[in-house]
Amino acid sequence: MAEGKDLLAGDTSSGGGRDLLATPKAPVYESPGALEKAGATAYGLGTSILGTGGDIEQALYPTEAKGEGALKGHSTFFPTTEEAQEIYGKFGIPKPRKEVSGYQKAGELLPAIAGGGKLAYDLTKAGVKGVGKMIGGGKDLAAELQATTAGKTAEEIAAAGKKATTAEKRAGAAEKITEREAGKGEAAYGQLPGVQNKIAEADVTIGQRLKTKADDVYNKLKSTRAANAEKNKAAAFNAAKQKELAGAKVEDTESYKQVMKEIKGMLNDPETKLAVATLEPIKNPLLQIKRALDPRYVDEAGIVRGKPISFEGMEDLRRFLRDRSYGLPAEGFDAINQQKAGKLADSIERVMEEFSPGIKTFISQYRKDSAPLQAFQSKLGKSLVGEQKGTTIATTAAQDIPKAVFKNKENFDNFVDAIGGDKKLAQSEAQKYFAGQLQGKDASQARKFIDDRNTRAMLKETGSYDMANNYVRQLEQAEKRGVTALERGKTRTKTAADQRKIEGELRILQSDIDRADKITDAKEKINYINKQAQKLADYLPIEQRDQFLNEVQGVVNAEQMKQSVKKWTGIALGAAGLYTTGHVASGLLGK
To answer: CB–CB of 277/283 below 8 Å?
Structure first.
């Protein structure tokens, strides 16, 4: 090694252990004489003895500026080796020349070999802390290294345990926050109309209530119409009855003749005499109506059978035709067109008015009372009160009613009309229905539901949008906070697991470090602990890792330096003629 080549020849620039570790090689220049070498060694020994106190003081309590010691202009109470050399110079003792500076260095190190004092100075330069504990030599160095490594390991075990405990507590807190936020969404849902114990009303319950309300209104309207009809009908029919008793007949009126002509015209063209109604489904109902107006016929014997139609018979026919015109078919008139049925009903009413003028009051009031019932003639209306098909009634299941009522504006308005214009009640039922539609949906699903174009329109139409939107916002906020807490909880749970794992690994390492107590050889012990220290370093943050490894390496270097000092001092003393006997070497090197 290049640095070792000039160690005895005077290279003192490094002043540290790295020069001492180098393997010496024979000088290539002319060697000084034995006397000069011995003088250089004696010079180094003398200045070292004189400066040892100051060197130790400076090593243990370093200062930078001079003038802080006992003597003005000095940094220590005792003189250092350098200051001792200056004193020698003042007394005319020159510093050895460069060619024998290695022997001077060997002389300076003799006190370190003998008692360890000078080693304190060199260990400090190597970066070792607690120098005072290490002056004793290798065993103390090993103990210090073990203490340093074990202490740091214990410190990291405690830190890992604390981090794990903190992470566990925070994970638990995050879980509680998640549960709490989920509860907020449920609590908000519990405030929606129709929701009890966080459960919305079933569609069938709402449907039954809608049907019941519609049935009540429908039956009341029919009852009102029937009562008015009964009262007004009596006067008109009594007058007609009196006329019929006097021999008058409906068929004698001009209106009757006109309606018969009208029906005949529907069957055959009056000018061309050609058939108009040729299809049986069209012709047969017209023939039935014609026969109802004139029940008489001539049998095979040429005898006229049957009687002319009465005023009461005209009323029955009018009602059948009017019901058909409203969309409620009656037996025998199923095939007749609603429009034609309405026109014939109007014609028959004119006949009746001509025969008994009081019937107009009856018909007008009846028509007025029937107007609200028109709401029940739609598809939705029929589903509410039952749809008449011939002589049967087909009903719609209650659970399907809310979906139909709140499907679109037309149906909603139809329902409002059907229940007598009670829009407030209809909106209240709508809110309960839409609350049920939001049940079980997460924030994303609920937002998608209310943002649907048709749904949004109906929410606004029914006065339910603010209710639904406010709930979805609360659900979104709760879920957002809950998800954040959940993710934090997952992270903290992982952190806790990681730290517990590290804590366990460090406890194993701590056990390995404790095994160093069984190692008696200082060098072997230092090497063993150094390996454990390297393992520990992998668990430390980068800035702590470097600091710790430098500290550990300083201890290792110090032990190596001590061994090298012994070796090089022996070489130096031998070269100076002072290392000639075994007992001298043993005394100086502390073997």
So the answer is: yes
